């Protein structure tokens, strides 16, 4: 028979081992659950700008109204091409004709309209282009919509930065709570609206320091990630 001390040590070892596995099971089966928010933003100079506008004419005769709009469309296209905008980047809609009374009660005659748009890389001349369009009879000229060459690449970069920010915050929480294992169990993405800016003159310190030209456009893409973690 084994000595009583040896038996005691054997059972004590089994008890300690059992307690260890019980504690380990509790830790594994009851992880700490936390959620962090990561934010990532990237900016890039705009590559192109899109401007839309309308041409309109009011005449007593519908044909005269239509002909005047068609003539103005041709004039606008020729002027834009002369300024360096290729015809492939100029688009137009069909001329629409309707009674003037449909717009204003009691009005007589007919009104013809056509919508046009341009895409240009002349970001330092947007004000000049808009002024030219108004001078050629354009109405309702929209604010330029700026675009980057590869928005998808910007979004991926913003996503990576947001995830990096979330991981950094999660590491801080884990260290504070003595958790050494982490697992991502949830990622919810929120894309903030893309913002763009166009400055009409050198009025910012950053422009002066970087020697950026006036009317330089900047596109900013931001992403917000809600990341859920289990920690042990």
UniProtKB/TrEMBL annotation:
| Keywords from the UniProt entry | Membrane, Transmembrane, Transmembrane helix
User: Any stretches that span the bilayer, and where are they?
Assistant: 12-28
Kindly give the Pfam families that the UniProt entry links to this protein: SIMPL
Matches recorded under InterPro entries: 26kDa_periplasmic_antigen, SIMPL/DUF541
- Give me any GO biological process, just one: DNA damage response
Q: What is this protein called?
A: DUF541 domain-containing protein
Source organism per entry reads Candidatus Woesebacteria bacterium GW2011_GWB1_33_22
Q: What is the lineage of its organism?
A: Bacteria, Candidatus Woeseibacteriota
């Amino acid at each position: 028979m084994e000595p009583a001390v040896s038996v005691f040590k054997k059972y004590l070892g089994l008890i300690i081992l059992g307690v260890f596995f019980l504690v380990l099971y509790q830790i594994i089966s009851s992880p700490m659950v936390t959620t962090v928010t990561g934010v990532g933003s990237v900016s890039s100079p705009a590559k192109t700008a899109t401007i839309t506008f309308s041409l309109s004419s009011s005449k007593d005769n519908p044909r005269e109204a239509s002909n005047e709009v068609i003539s103005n469309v041709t004039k606008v296209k020729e002027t834009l091409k002369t300024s360096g905008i290729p015809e492939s980047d100029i688009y137009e809609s069909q001329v629409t004709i309707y009674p003037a009374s449909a717009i204003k009660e009691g009005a007589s005659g007919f009104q013809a309209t056509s919508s046009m748009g341009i895409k240009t890389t002349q970001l330092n001349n947007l004000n000049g282009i808009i002024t030219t369009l108004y001078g050629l009879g354009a109405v309702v000229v929209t604010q330029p919509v700026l675009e980057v060459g590869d928005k998808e690449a910007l979004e991926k970069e913003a996503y990576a930065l947001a995830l990096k920010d979330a991981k950094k915050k999660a590491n801080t929480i884990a260290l504070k709570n003595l958790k050494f294992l982490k697992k991502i169990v949830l990622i919810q993405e929120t894309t903030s609206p893309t913002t763009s800016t166009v400055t009409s003159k050198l009025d910012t310190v950053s422009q002066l320091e970087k020697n950026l030209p006036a009317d330089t456009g900047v596109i900013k893409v931001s992403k917000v990630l809600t990341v859920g973690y289990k920690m042990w």
